User: Which sequence fits this backbone?
């Protein structure tokens, strides 16, 4: 993939969120609608195209943990708020290809994590579990060695303790498991077809209605 090759040529060990999602989208993984802006002059056009409310996020290949660094502003509802957030975020970031992502605000109460890690012995392994801010606390995850088939993907979902979150619960509709299975299969394919991809971290995958959407993503390279 061109995005990966370009990053490697530049001697980088990670893709930015924007680049990571370009890779995911190339593998038919649903991602947020977003526009990368590096000049305040282009901000209004971007917010109009995405439509309020929006999320503004720092975007650079050198930023991994945006939340801890205060580089995300959510639920921005007008041009004045967008401009203030843009200027504040831009003043805090530096590094290769940096800018601000103007992103649609995906609403959903259920958050999942999907990922890939390249094991020395087994090669690319796909990961699935409960996501969001509690991923590291709950550690409710399952793994399979790629390539995986639909049967494997569905088994992974049932392996986690919190799998009932995928069913119709508290007025929320059951998750589209076919779509979720396709994402898991395709994440495995990325690892199999791109040997320089060391890790993929898609967290959170928010369930919007009944459909999973990758809201944040990081791809780490060898």
Assistant:
């Amino acid at each position: 993939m061109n995005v990966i090759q370009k990053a490697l040529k530049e001697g980088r060990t990670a893709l930015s969120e924007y680049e990571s999602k370009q890779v995911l989208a190339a593998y038919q993984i649903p991602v947020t609608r977003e526009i990368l802006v590096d000049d305040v002059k282009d901000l209004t056009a971007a917010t109009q195209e995405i439509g309020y409310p929006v999320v503004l996020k720092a975007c650079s290949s050198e930023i991994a943990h945006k939340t801890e660094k205060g580089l995300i502003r959510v639920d921005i509802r007008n041009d004045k708020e967008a401009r203030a957030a843009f200027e504040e975020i831009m003043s805090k970031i530096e590094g290769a290809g940096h800018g601000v992502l103007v992103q649609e605000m995906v609403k959903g109460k259920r958050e999942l994590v999907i990922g890939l890690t390249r094991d020395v012995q087994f090669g690319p392994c796909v990961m699935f579990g409960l996501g969001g801010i509690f991923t590291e606390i709950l550690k409710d995850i399952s793994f399979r060695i790629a390539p995986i088939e639909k049967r494997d993907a569905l088994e992974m979902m049932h392996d986690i303790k919190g799998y009932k979150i995928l069913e119709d619960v508290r007025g929320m509709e059951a998750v589209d498991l076919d779509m979720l299975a396709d994402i898991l299969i395709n994440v495995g394919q990325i690892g199999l077809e791109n040997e320089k991809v060391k890790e993929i971290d898609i967290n959170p995958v928010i369930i919007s209605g009944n459909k999973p959407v990758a809201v944040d993503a990081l791809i780490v390279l060898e």
